Amino acid sequence: MEIRNVIIIGGGPAGLSAALYTARAGLKPLVLAGSPPGGQLMLTTEVENFPGYEEIMGPDLIQTLRKQVLKFGTEILDDNVKEIVTSSHPFTIKTHKTEYSTKAVIIATGAQAMWLGLESETRLRGKGVSACATCDGFFFKNKIVAVVGGGDTAMEEAQTLAKFAKKVYLIHRKDSFRASKIMQVRVRENPKIEIIMNTSITKVLGEQKVEGVELVVSHQPSAVSRLKLDGVFIAIGHKPDTAVFKDTILLDKKGYIVTSAVAALDIAKNIPRPDGVMFDYTYQSMTSVPGVFAAGDCVDHTYRQAGTAAGMGIASALDIERWIEKKEVI
Ligand SMILES: Cc1cc2nc3c(=O)[nH]c(=O)nc-3n(C[C@H](O)[C@H](O)[C@H](O)COP(=O)(O)OP(=O)(O)OC[C@H]3O[C@@H](n4cnc5c(N)ncnc54)[C@H](O)[C@@H]3O)c2cc1C
Questions:
Q1: Which end of the chain is more exposed for a tag (fewer CB within 10 A), N or C?
Q2: DSSP-derived secondary structure letter, 257
């Protein structure tokens, strides 16, 4: 079986940026981009905050990145990885159809925003329904929006939106927030934010764009009301796509991949690798398995932007280049 230099798992901004750099370094990367490929940007419309583009549709940005990496000799297959075996080197990457052998791996499988699961919510995604205030808040200048959720993320989203919107409703289905006290205080003190507790959204209203929501008071299914809105931000959490790596790579308790950079941040707590050895801090994107690197939203639960994911992808490619050179495994 041919031994690849590097296999990149994931075809979003992180994976494709890693491909760009490893391809230009002559490593001939194979990207297993997943199925469906493209990642979270495929779910959005205008992107106005990716450097270099005043405005581009999310799927067009992915298409442009794919074209760019193909030009430098990247191979892309829209296939899902089901297992990686790292107990011997070179590593084995298994998809549902076949398996590959590789000297190094970059995991860039991203994350998925969690949604309420309403048909109307899915239909109006990108048309007023969003899961990212940093990405889309700017489109709601002087508008009325709602944030759904009760954790720190929901509090942050509400505050971010309050910088743009005329009014922000924070809707939570329980009678208390899960968020930290300080975040709750900031939200309660913000005059633009109105809190609605014990209430769930049962329908997003509107045909072409969001016009409002239908609300139900918890434990009183007959108490239905309507609220006029221009946008709805769902902030009930994110789930990293890392389940297939759980037996191989160290994950944190929320399922995000722990890299040297993450371990270094937590150095006071001295996060050891499962084998007891300390992380190698020379390579910030290296995971608990030397030779396996990770980048983008599958690692990062803080910034979660296409630009930061691309930057992490680039950093992981540079780490791999240096690692391969130093270890002389090529
Ligand atoms: C609705 C929405 C709007 C957004 N708008 C913006 C915006 O305007 N600006 C901005 O900067 N950011 C925006 N974001 C955030 C941005 O999309 C993400 O931060 C970015 O896409 C993360 O890139 P990534 O490459 O880490 O992961 P992803 O984009 O999630 O890509 C992950 C890739 O991994 C693949 N994959 C997953 N599992 C496997 C597997 N087992 N095998 C193989 N492949 C696999 C997926 O198919 C996908 O190709 C938005 C997000 C959402 C949800």
A1: N
A2: B
